[in-house]
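[SOLVED] Need 3D model of a four-part complex

Original post:
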Amino acid sequence: MKTRAKGTRERIVETARALFNEQGYGAVSTAGLAAACGIAEGNLWYHFKTRRALLDALGERFAAAIEVRLALVPGADPVASYARLLEAVMDEFRGFRFLYRDQRSYGEHAEPIAAHAPEWLERTFVQLEAHLAALVDGGLLDWPRDRLRDLAINATIILRYGLEHYQELGEPTLEGTGAVRRTLLRHLTLFEHQLDRGAAARLHAAIAEMGAEALAA
Amino acid sequence: MKTRAKGTRERIVETARALFNEQGYGAVSTAGLAAACGIAEGNLWYHFKTRRALLDALGERFAAAIEVRLALVPGADPVASYARLLEAVMDEFRGFRFLYRDQRSYGEHAEPIAAHAPEWLERTFVQLEAHLAALVDGGLLDWPRDRLRDLAINATIILRYGLEHYQELGEPTLEGTGAVRRTLLRHLTLFEHQLDRGAAARLHAAIAEMGAEALAA
DNA sequence: GTCTATAGCCCGATAGAC
DNA sequence: GTCTATCGGGCTATAGAC
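Solution:
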């Protein structure tokens, strides 16, 4: 199997991401991870000489995904643009959920995201506000300009903590359970009563179509 | 010191609560807890024969505090009632923050709150909606009745995750840092533009006065 | 590159003297 | 009630054969 070196490393990273999301970073032992990968524990240490190194690798992937998402700007069709942005945001929060959720677990020097989160959140506020402003400019959303930033921040919070919220409510949140869809619908309640009927319908339709929730790895 | 038996047990519970909130449930070892209490580790096992027993004791306190808060109904002055409710909710979320935040850490059989959280959240929605309806009935809030429940749910989410949000933004969230105040102000942005000017001013004043953030132990 | 074997550490929990 | 001393177990990480 020596020819699949890259393959093994890749498999470790992907398996770790899924396992951390499901069980929590702190609850996954290296033994359990190795077993889930179908390799011996020692082999795991060959590819990542410390548990922290594996975490950093995942952090880098996350950072890359975020930059791609943050580059999404409102286009000619602000409704379609907004739907696309929503999907990207939720893919992110779901795919790397443990990075946010389990920050306490990785020994306090939790830099992987703690150092970047403030900047990412700020830029997300700005991005969401820009998309919402595009809806306002298009005459599709009736909202005071000077209250758009508050709306963007509140929308970010709802999107960010939606999965945790539904989990706390006792609802399943893993892939295919519709928790992402419910989160998107919940965030819509922040402003849909001020939204153009057609635009609201299109957003609802777009969210309903996100049934095939695939991870943009 | 044998006369202070009850005192020691009490001190353990209170120290544990504070320590769990600060450092995270999983990050506090029995050794560290004993040290913080100023007692030997063995003595700790005398009072709580298992780590889980200590957690349950804290869970019971939390449950009791919640029931007291849930009993708050809108009074003759709906603005004052709402301010009082907000303070109680935040005392709760702050005082027992780790119970929500660190659910992953206590070995999956996380019953202390996981079993009750759905019911508590549902009743909180209902309670908040009742208080908001009282504001509408008093002519102080302009909001469609059939959208009040969504507002109550969104307000609960913002209140519930406000501290986590500000922590992620890199802001301090411990007592006396004003994070609770910021959370309350953030939740106000959900509907203050539809609020009577005088009522809005009174709520802002009430929140500003919550500087002396004391825990209703 | 992958494996087996094991070192070393910290933790939760127990035993028993005072 | 409080202490000291210690056990057993699980975890991260290393050593070295294949």
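Edit: The two ends of chain A are 24 Å apart (CA to CA).
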